Amino acid sequence: MTGDNMNVMECVKISLASIVSNKLRTLLTIIGITIGISSVIAIISIGKGGQTAILNEFDKLGTNSINIRAKTGVVQGKDILRLDDAVNIEKYIPQAESVTPVFNGFGLIKNNNKIREAYIWGIDKDFKDIFSLELLHGRLINQNDTRLARNVVVIDNVVAKKLFHRGNVIGKTINLIVRKDSVILTIIGVVKNSNEIFDNIFDEQVPTFIYMPITTLQRIYNSNYVDFISVKVGKGENPDEVGIKIVNFLERSHHTSQKYYAENMLKQREQVRRVTNILTYIIGAIGAISLIVGGIGIMNIMLVSVKERTKEIGIRKAVGARKGDILKQFLTEAVLLTLIGGIMGIATGIFFSWLLSVFSGLPMEISMPTIIIALLFSAFIGILFGVYPAQKASNLDPIEALRYE
What we know:
Layout: H1 8-21, H2 23-59, E1 65-70, H3 83-92, E2 96-111, E3 114-123, H4 127-130, E4 135-138, H5 143-147, E5 152-156, H6 157-164, E6 173-178, E7 181-191, H7 196-202, E8 208-213, H8 214-221, E9 228-233, H9 239-253, E10 260-264, H10 265-308, H11 310-318, H12 323-360, H13 368-394, H14 398-403
Parallel strand pairs: 3-8, 5-7
Antiparallel strand pairs: 1-9, 1-10, 2-3, 2-6, 2-9, 4-7, 6-7
């Protein structure tokens, strides 16, 4: 440790001895780093888990499908989509494996004094071929339901339990209120709630989905159009090319141009993935701001340490320690402090992620790259805020340092 350069192990041993000798100060010093890293880990793990849950639900909407829609501002009664369009697409477009028209509405479902907001899907028998519905009891909408515009409905298991306190409610009735109209619907099926995770978190803040014959919902709304037509693309077919073909077909059928467009659901999924990624990392970055506070704490404590060990530094320089040796030792100590804080932060972040996952139902997703980046960032904070104290220590005059009391 005299004329030769100090090796890394010597630096680590001396730094650890200094850290251990001041346990309380060390704990208070690294708490800012621990809070910052744990916040980032918890935010990213829950954010990634939430993203996975959202994408899984998105996959149930059929990622190998396209949605055909009329552009806004079309002339009512001329350039809109109708049930016949869905029939013709299935008949004349061979690349369309399955076609289902969809009409959406919003209303309230009621049983006695219990009321729940509902997003209504007006569908036909082919809906199940494109959108994933897990049937628990009864049956789904069939051809006769649509042809006869029956007052029947399929609800999910969560609503069944909230309105009737039981899972199997086949044959029971609910009151659907749309605008000022009220319709009695008979429950013919119960499906698994596809938004159960978010329903657990937000409870009744998230509207439930109910499914009924498209013709019944059109009658309630006094409408003859559909909101969109969902098309399952055949295996090996390019969704974008099939979408263009369908749009061209509709424009020829309606004697119009540039009034329709196709949504590629796989591209929509990718956009959702990108947006949720950006949001997760932005929120994580905001949480990381507390690391700056932790870094300032590290710098302050290291400056105190330099002052307390001024005489020690003078003795070491007098017996041959180089400027670089002193710099290396204090920088190592700063990095070790932040790494210890980082490790504690990772453990705390994982624990709180797990705790939140248990109570909310949201999955947690911890990746090794996230942990490695957190540790590297901790070390970077140590270097960034440890450089100044380390330089100050290395620049001390040995004679003045030996005189220091």
